[in-house]
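Entry, Tuesday afternoon. Goal for today is a structural model of the target with adenosine-5'-triphosphate bound, before we commit to ordering more compound. Inputs were pasted exactly as handed over by J.K., no edits. I checked the ligand SMILES twice against the vendor sheet because last time a stereocentre got dropped in transcription.
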Amino acid sequence: MIDVHLQLSVSDRNRRFDLDIAFATDAPFVALYGPSGAGKSLTLQAMAGLLPVQAGHVKLNGRALLDTAAGINLAPEARGVGYLFQHYALFPHLSVRDNIAFGLTSWRKRLKSDDAARVDELIESFGLEAMARSKPATLSGGQQQRVALARALACNPQVLLLDEPFAALHPMLRQQLRDELRAVRERWGIPAVMITHDLDDVAALAHRAYIVDGGRVTREVDLIAGRGRELLDSTALRPEEQQRREFLKSQIA
Ligand SMILES: Nc1ncnc2c1ncn2[C@@H]1O[C@H](COP(=O)(O)OP(=O)(O)OP(=O)(O)O)[C@@H](O)[C@H]1O
């Protein structure tokens, strides 16, 4: 069960944005879908403990990662969260293997043998054996995404937070990597919260979608066994956007 309620404001000299977002679900794969500037990334960052929250809670299977009323606010590294950043944020000077192992090592310490075995298992599951010693810059976009996902999984997280996991990829690759992400998430049995602008990501992966706009959840859609797909299609996209999406789909099919 993921139970989230977050209230926070961010501002600079000219702008202010108020987020007041709540969702609670047992769905294993949750999508936060909405337009640019809706507050999706702020939500994910606050869940991970990367952003101060004024009031609210984040609970995972009853365990509070944050509960302002109870004075609980775990540090990011204590939250058990695997974060996939939109542009992957791989360390350019580290090899693929060291990138994946990064969260398991601390300065001057070597990997424990259990951790090394987990890193090797991830390298193998993602088909990265041949490039384990290479630097990220020498990898394709899809390979970099696999490294980032393996890194997010390395610390045995209780939840995966995925920020636009396919946005940086060529459309032809997306379908394949969606299938891989679905298989990997099921294999490791970890719930995921994904943010996306792409309805195809939602339709392909999510069991439950929350439509986010203006810092709030404006609608929730149950997608289990395909229910709600039509609803999502007809409510979340404007007619011209639907047309464009259908045209694009026909061009790349
Ligand atoms: N430090 C800040 N000061 C002022 N406004 C901010 C700050 N950080 C974010 N915002 C604003 O908050 C709003 C929500 O940002 P957020 O990054 O969560 O949007 P998003 O839904 O993830 O958008 P996108 O899909 O384009 O990534 C945006 O309008 C953004 O400009």
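The chain has two domains: 2-80+157-252, 84-155.
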